[in-house]
Amino acid sequence: MGKTRDFGGYATRYNIKCADGRTIRPNAFDDMDGETVPLVWDHNHKSPLNVLGHALLHKRDDGVYADLYFNEETTQGANAKALVKNGDVKALSIFANGLAQDEAKNVMHGVIREVSLVLAGANPGAFIDTAMAHSIDGEDPDEAIIYMTEDPITHSFYGIDSAATEVDESNIDEEEIVEHSDKKDDESDDKDDETYGDVIASMTEKQQKVVAELVARAAIKSDEYDNNSDDKGEKEMKHNVFDNDSASAYVEHGLTKDEQKMIIADADRYGSLKQSFLAHSEELGISGDVLMHGTDIEYSEDKQAYMVNDPSFLFPEAKALNNPPAWIKRDTGWVSGVLSGTKHVPFSRIKSVFADITEDEARAKGYIKGDKKLDEVFTLLRRSTDPQTIYKHQSMDRDDVIDITDFDVVAWIKSEMRMMLDEEIARAILIGDGKLTSDRTHIAHDHIRPIWLDDDLFTIKTLVELAANATDDTKAKAYIRAAVKARKNYKGSGNPVFYTTEDVLTDMLLLEDNMGHRLYKSESEVASAMRVSRIVTVQVMEGQSRTVDNVTRNLVGIIVNLSDYTVGADKGGAVAMFDDFDIDYNKQKYLIETRCSGALTVPYSAIVIESAVANS
Question: pTM score > 0.70 for this model?
Answer without folding.
Answer: no
